[in-house]
């Protein structure tokens, strides 16, 4: 009776109530309970279950599962999961960048670049997207476009060693020596322990 008082629509509870009333001798009450009985079960609070259901529908869940699938080499599953993450959070730059990486890993460079362009339409100040866009351009032998993307990434995040290094390398390939020197010097200030590597890289690329 207390359960029904809390959830009057839980008509399934009226079956055991009728049995209890009949056992206690209240035949009239038992008949009334049976007449109102149905199939509606009571609802139980389940905070942990509610949290899990909410998580399973969130972009973070799909993204983490997608990245796990990518790490395990299952790129089709990774792509599908990251598409679900994008559907849940279409303007999230982290999801978009990871989706682009998965597309590129699967050989869809054009799709990856398009995904990054969508990220930048919604988040023009997202430096990692600019850097990766440069990497994709570089892989297609589009050094001038790559350098432009790297420069944008550097302007947005001057402390990013990778963008500085990539910008310097692209500038060297284009024989923009002053630009290359500037970017390598900045990279060296950010990570002095990499000076020797930077010097070898500069010498190797000047010899090409």
Structural class: mainly alpha
SSE ordering? HHHHHHHHHHHHH
Number of separate strands: 0
Considering DSSP H and I runs of 4 or more, what fraction of the residues is helical?
Answer: over 70%
Beta-strand level of the residues, as a percent range?
A: under 5%
SS field, number of helical segments? 13
Rg of Cα set: 30 Å
Instruction: Report the end-to-end length measured between terminal Cα atoms.
Output: 87 Å
What is the average of the pLDDT values? 81
Low-confidence stretches: 48-53
Major sheet description: none
User: What is the 3D shape?
Assistant: rod-shaped
Q: Can you give keywords for this protein?
A:
74% helix, mainly alpha, 208 residues, single chain
Architecture blueprint of SSEs:
Layout: H1 2-6, H2 14-23, H3 27-35, H4 47-56, H5 59-71, H6 75-88, H7 93-105, H8 109-122, H9 127-139, H10 143-156, H11 161-173, H12 177-190, H13 195-206
Helix pairs in contact: 2-3, 5-6, 6-7, 7-8, 7-9, 8-9, 9-10, 10-11, 11-12, 11-13
Describe the 3D structure.
With 208 residues, the chain is an all-alpha fold. The chain is built from 13 helices and no strands. The chain is rod-shaped. About 3% of the residues have low confidence.
């Amino acid at each position: 009776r207390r359960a029904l008082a809390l959830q009057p629509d839980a008509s399934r509870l009226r079956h055991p109530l009728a049995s209890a009333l009949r056992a206690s001798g209240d035949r009239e009450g038992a008949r009334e309970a049976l007449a109102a009985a149905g199939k509606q079960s009571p609802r139980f609070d389940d905070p942990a279950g509610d949290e899990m259901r909410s998580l399973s529908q969130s972009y973070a869940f799909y993204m983490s599962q997608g990245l796990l699938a990518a790490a395990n080499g299952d790129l089709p599953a990774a792509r599908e999961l990251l598409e679900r993450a994008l559907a849940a959070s279409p303007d999230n730059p982290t999801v978009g960048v990871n989706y682009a990486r998965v597309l590129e890993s699967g050989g869809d460079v054009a799709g990856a670049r398009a995904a990054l362009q969508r990220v930048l339409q919604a988040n023009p100040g997202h430096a990692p997207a600019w850097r990766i866009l440069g990497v994709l351009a570089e892989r297609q032998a589009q050094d001038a476009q790559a350098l432009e993307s790297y420069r944008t990434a550097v302007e947005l995040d001057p402390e990013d060693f990778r963008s500085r290094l990539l910008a310097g390398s692209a500038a060297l390939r284009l024989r923009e020596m002053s630009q290359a020197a500037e970017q390598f010097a900045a990279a060296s200030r950010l990570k002095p322990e990499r000076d020797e590597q930077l010097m070898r890289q500069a010498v190797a690329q000047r010899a090409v």
